[in-house]
Structures are given as structure tokens and as C-alpha cells.
Amino acid sequence: MKSQEIYARLSTNPKKLWWLLPLSFVTLIVIALGIWFFTHQSQSFVYKTSKVKTLTITQSVSATGTLSPTDTVEVGSQISGRIESVFVDINDEVKEGQIIAKINPEKLNQTLAKNRANLDSARAQYELSRATLKTNEWNYKRLKELFERTGGRSPSQLELRNAQLEYESALRNVEVNKANIANIESDVRSAEIDLKNSVILSPINGIVLERSVDPGQTVAANFQTPTLFKLAKSLETMSLVVNVAESDIGKVRIGQQVLFSVDAYPDIEFKAFVDRVSYAATEDETNNIISYETKILVDNKSLLLRPGMSVTANILVQTEKDTQAIPVSALYYEPPKLNNKQKAFSFTQAPPRPPRSGIVNKKMGKTIYILQDNIPVPLEVEVGINDGINAQIISPKLSDDMQIITSSQAK
Questions:
Q1: CB burial class (10 A; 0-12, 13-18, 19+) of residue 118?
Q2: Is there a smaller number of Cβ atoms within 10 Å at the N or the C end of the chain?
Q3: Confidence (pLDDT) at 191
């Protein structure tokens, strides 16, 4: 196509394009309105508010642990041998002195009989040595008397000396046989004790928690005492040991009430009391966490609770009755946009005096937002305890008609 023809087509009559001008103008207006609508609409929010409440707030410290009996006794065997009989099983109640198991006594009886026979032999040997002592003593005294009467002519000094040595030897022999009797008597008593220990008795009144032996088994007590039974003195009082975090241990005191539940009875809330707070720290090296062992005494007269149950406990550390409270979420609310010209509420009051003990309780200062004319206005408050849902307001005193902002959402 020639350049003249192209120029002719491009140079169309401007009157034919008049309709494009209104269209462009309308398009610009629509774009401007869209920008204005978007910018103004993005600044409009819907606020969720809550009013001040007067209620009782209880702050608690949560911890987990495991139930266990307060007094447990491990019953073992001091001798080795084959278990002949077992008379109790798990959950059986036992009385102090009750026979709960027996070890086969045949070998023990044999040892005892052998030691008794040795004792009889030693006693006979002792009597024989005493008779010999009397004979040698009489002979020595007779020769000595004769020697003195004859002026040393009869008997000879050698005969007198031999008689003296025989007498002294018989005397020492009697002492040796006497000591031998004492030694064998000790062996007899030891064998009698072993025979007595072959009958295993319950040392307490309680209940059998564990049984780790059956008839026919052989127990070896050469190096350490094997545990045959584990007894609990009573399950009516149990112990709950929990680990309280380092950040919460300062709030826990002896005598504080504890509420807890177990998976076995999810609808029942059990009560207990703090019995001991350990000063020694427990360190979890894996997670680098410091905690402190706290013992809780549990009344279990209903016998619903059992050793080994996992527990989630709440230690009630502080309670404030009839106090002003707001939702905890209001303490952490931040408005999306705040006019800097708005001023916070101010209250003129003297600062509180520290307690005379020298220990100053630090109160947490927070900023909450009040909704006024659909605008969030900041208000500084002094916050006390909280239960995870509501927080105590210490100062200032809030009016009942205040709308406390807890959250907001753009329209």
C-alpha cells in the first residue's frame, strides 16, 4: 500500500470520533469514585464491645502430675530359694503379720539340722575338755604339793613342769571349746532366722498394689533384696506431685486449695490442698525449663482415684470478690488506626504507698480502648489478677455504661 493511501486513511474526519470524549469522561469519573469509595470504606470499622462487670475472680496456676499412695512399702525376700506358695493377689487387703508368701524350707531345715548337730558335738567336746581339765588340774596340784613337802626331791622339776603345761593346755582347750559353742550357736540362730524369713509376712495393714512373683519361681537375694510385693498403707489419702513452672512458683503457698480432674471421671471436680512446696529446682535439660516440685494431699475416701492416674490440677492462688472486671481480650486490643489528636483519659490521684514490709507488689499497667462516637479512645488502667477470661481493674473506677472494645473488623 502506498504512503499516500495510508495517510488518507489515518486522517479521518475528527467529527466521526466525537462520541469518544463523553466515554472517556465517564470512565475517569468511575475510577475516581472507586478510589474514593475504597479509601473511605477502608477506614470504617465495626467494633465489638463489652461492659464492665462486677464479679468474683479467682486466679489459678495450672500443673500436671500423677497420683500415688502416700505410704508404700516394698516387701522382698532376705533369702534365696524357690517360692512354694503365694497367698495374696493384686488389690487384696492384708493385715500386719499376715502370711503372704512362703519359700520352700527344705534346704533351710537341712542347714538348721546340721548346725544343731554341730552344736551338740561342740557341747560334748566342751564337757570332755572340762573333764580333762579337772584331771590335769588334780595331777598338777598333787605333784606340786609333794614337791614342796620333799623339798624338791620328788617329783623332779621336769615332771612338775610337764604336769603344769598339761593343766594349762587343758584350761585353754576348755576356753576354745566354749568359744566354738558360741560360734555354732550363732550359726544355729542364723539358720533359724533364715527359716523364719522363708515365711514372708505383711509389715503393714494395707492393700496389694503389685505382685511380681508366682509359685515355682526362684528368688536370688545374694546381691540385693528382690521385691516380691508392693503394698500401700492406705488409698484413702493419696499424694499428687506436680511440677510448677518457675514463673508461677512465687504464687503457690502451703494450704492453698487445689481443684483437679482425671480422665476417668471428666464430670467430677476433686478438691485437695497444697502440702509442700519444694525449694529444690527440677531442670528439664531438653527444653531448658526450670520447675519446682509441689506435693498435694488428696482425700480419697470414696476410693475413686487410683495410683498412676494423670491429673490436670489448678492451684487457686488468689481470689478477689465483688471487683470490677473486663474481658482479658480488651487488654490486648489495638485499634487499626487512631487519631493522634485524641487524648487519653486522665485521673488525678496520689500514687499508692508501698507496703511497710518493703516488698512492693507491682501492678500491671495497661491501655484499653473505650468506644465514644464510634471512635476508640485510649484509657490507662491498673490491672490486677485474671482467670484467663476476665481481668480485675484496680483503678480507676469504670462507669457501668462504658463500652470496652474487645475487637474490631473492617466493614
A1: middle
A2: N
A3: 94
